[in-house]
Batch of 2 targets.
Target 1
Amino acid sequence: MEQLSGADSVFLSMETPTTPTHVGGMTILDLSEAPDFCFEKLLEVLEERIPIEPRYTMKLRATSYGIDRPYLVHDPDFDVRNHVKRIAVPSPGGLKELAELVSFLHASPLERDKPLWEMWLIEGAENGRVAMYSKTHHCLMDGQAGSDLGELLCDMEPNPKTPPSALRREPRVITQFSDFELSLRAAREVIGAPGRLLGFVGKVISQTTASMRAARKDPEAPPPPSAVPRLSFNAKVGKKRVFACSSVSLSDVKEIKKHFDVTVNDVVLAVSGTAMRNYLAKRGELPEESLVAMIAISTREEGDSSVGNKITSIPVSWATDLEDPVARLLQVHTNADKAKEFSKNYDADLISGMGAALPPALASLMFRSAGDYASLFMPANVIVSNVRGTPIPLYTAGAKIECMYPISVLMDGMGLNLTVVSYMDRFDFGYIADPALVPDLWELAEAIPAATAELLEAARKTPAPAARSVRKKRSAEARK
């Protein structure tokens, strides 16, 4: 038995009939060197390794009247085969056909009466490949924890002679509580709730005030919600989902990073900002002020491989008001530095605070009631997450993973989300949206390689010393 943390509990409370809060991913497997790969072999690998992490064999147990955070308890009926299914994609089984099927699978919520994850083996992909789509409720994992979960399922060689390190680690100890102990713990939560709620409200007011002051003093500081422009996809979302993806070379991204003396995250934000700007300009919807991206940041310590949510988020001005892509990259670098500096001085992790302060029943009621008004209080236009993967090839049941496209969540007020994963020599971009709000999502995804090529060409035409001089000058001006 394990009680969910404050952040984990919030992701459960946020879930509504139109906003399921699971994350997922689509991986494509190359079977050319794995002739024995099949559905049964995949099941064998999962049956062997999933029990190593107890959370994936446990189901939810809510507390009476939702006054305390839920628990994860042992599922006596757990069977991997209840979570893994097979399906085929219509011919020709290309990337868009796979994405269309995954869009449908991702739209449905997970069943709460069993462990909160599932996986689909998708057969019939072109060139003799197969794909895997998996989804896990966000209350169980964040992006970095998802990478650690992959350690259980993936190998660094097709047929390892020794088990992966994850299988050799000591299983976590799970504490058991009696019904009486659970009642006492819930009573303590009720008694302490008013104080925690006042503290949380005070923190929100303090940070909002600080954000507004910073924005007035420095235009490059994290923008307050009142400065976020409202767009067509910043509205209440429906039940349907559309998924689109693309990839760029990690080497190209690193060349841009090195040339302009910025970070990889800056390049990701810049190219996605270019794609977003062009998309909106074509539709006559590009605002004069810059869009705001909410970037997710892991708060997990080095070497922490625990499963659970240890993330925070910071709003960053996306510099979509600048036409020149190089100017946009340099401005994004300055804005991101400012945002990170701001987050050190103020507690940006309000998700955990909310989970600790509000009883789950109250938090759930709040999220459901706020759906129609979410666009009035949204802190950003789009969430952009960058998850660090592995530079070496991985294998599942002997088959090599070619690519891994991430899929995240939507919420009322933000009907578009972008997540990026680095894998081998590539960055895989995964967009998810409400098709009623973003009817042509592939146009955004397919604009990413073009935006990267544009920056790469600019880097090769601009002498590096000059580029770095401009960047340092902008940073110095920003510090003043």
Note: The domain at 2-180 is CATH 3.30.559.10 (Chloramphenicol Acetyltransferase).
Target 2
Amino acid sequence: MDAFVKAYETLGYQLCYDNSLEAGLEKVAIFGKTNPADGSVIPTHVALQLESGEWTSKLGTLEDVRHKTVEAVDGPLYGRAHYYLSRPRRS
């Protein structure tokens, strides 16, 4: 997970505390599942918050999907959101 966070930091994102909509900020949620062998978290997915407050995700090879909450994609396939990062929204 640390490598994913560092990769997004190179794009101007910084860790933030929650998934709330904040004017002028673009947020991403990094999802992961816990590895039962050692307890580490394996990154599985990233969702992007839209200006409306909804989220968008690329699920497999299909088109992007929109979901009202970040928790809408929680589950056995992607795990849950472990980190939120934000950066100023580009115009």
Note: The longest strand covers residues 25-34.
